[in-house]
Amino acid sequence: MLLAISKNELVGRQKKLIDKLQASQLDCAILFSVVDIFYLTGFHFHPTERPICYFIDPQQKSHLFVPALEHEHAEEFACVDHVHSYPEYPGLRHPMEYLKDALAEAQFAGKRVGFDADGYGSSMGYRGQKVSQFLEAKDFSSIYGWVEEMRVIKSAAEIELIKESCRWGNLAHRLLQKYTKPGLSEIEITSRASTEATMAMIETLGPDYKPHGNTAYAIFRGQIGPMSAFPHAVTQNLVLKKGDTLVTGAAGEVWGYHSELERTMFVQEVSSEQEKYFHFMLQAQDIAFAHIKPGKPMSYVEEAVQAFFKENEIQHLTSHHTGHAIGLLGHEAPFFDLGDHTMMQPGMVMTVEPGIYVRGLGGFRHSDTVVVTEDGMEMLTYYPRDLASMICV
Question: Which intervals hold domain Creatinase N-terminal (predicted)?
């Protein structure tokens, strides 16, 4: 399989955006979103204080505006017609002055311009003018979220990359469970499992493999014992004890595409109380799977899960929605949530992860990655889910 998105598909994405601009009577566009630039051009870069943007001119040509240190990198890897660069930030002349020149040369003046943000944003010390302060356009319109909406329905190539991610998450998790023993620290276990899975991944996939993110990994993320009752705990360097509840995570990005595999496991033994909440969680996930249907709103899934929690009087032990879209980001829209009425469509890739959290006992959450199909869903992750398989011996 091709371990990347083809140039033809990238060009098709750009054409789709151009069509949307024309339908909205916009002449040109400027985008600053890192993930959207990668989605449209295939150029993966590290955003810093140095501004980077993508723009489409009135002649429908595509451009990348980058710092000089990225110029050759962009020419080598970006699917665009033109690359522009500036010496450095902050420099003797501000990068926005160079962008002003590039936009003028591309005939943006007096045009109807769409942008996803009125300037570059960074938490790394960047300061600079807004586009609307230096570009004399006919008018400006926000196209924020347009490319994100394009990313919602995955192509066949995107789904294959996500499936490949699932395979290596599966291996990493197998190794994590194999090495999970009382008396060992979470960092020791996760480091060993992640390294071994990564070495197998790069040896198997060969030089064509580009992660554009994390290689294969499996983690506890601090969700060990009573700490597993915090849905987004962070690594604590805890030492595992017999009877601990564990909530795990495993994946491996392939050309920037994510998957999500999470499991609730137990160290050597499981109590009746742990078993009770584990089965509640498993039932909730099965209910969610059964309600994933094209043509139904996202909220339809969450309503069914919440009804189950309420029926069993455990809704007070839940604290997050049932799932989210996934792709180039670990969390994307739409969401399995009561407030999200986006219609499910074939090609949407989602996580399914209803969780139950009992203070002092632990958290109970499996997460599986699925794709919506014409008549329901297809499970992309395939790690065992049953209780017997989740006891680490």
Answer: 13-153
Sole residue written with tokens 């290596």: 168
Give the pTM. Answer: 0.97
User: What are the residues facing 351 on neighbouring strands?
Assistant: 369
In which element (H, E) is residue 350 found? strand 349-352
Spatial CA neighbour of 285 closest among 193, 386, 138: 386
Q: Contact 286/292 with Cβ under 8 angstroms? A: no
Helix (H) or strand (E) holding 364: strand 362-365
Q: Is the peptide bond prior to 334 cis by the omega test (within 30 degrees of 0)? A: yes
327-366 tens-digit pLDDT: 999 999 999 999 999 999 999 999 999 999 999 999 999 9
Residues 261, 166: contact at Cβ < 8 Å?
yes
Distance CA 209, CA 202 (A): 7
3-state secondary structure 290-342: HCCCCCCEHHHHHHHHHHHHHHCCCHHHCCCCCEEECCCCCCEEEEECCCCCC
Cβ 70 vs Cβ 52: under 8 Å: yes
Token pair in block for residue 336: 């399995």
Q: Which residue has the tokens 């829209």?
A: 333
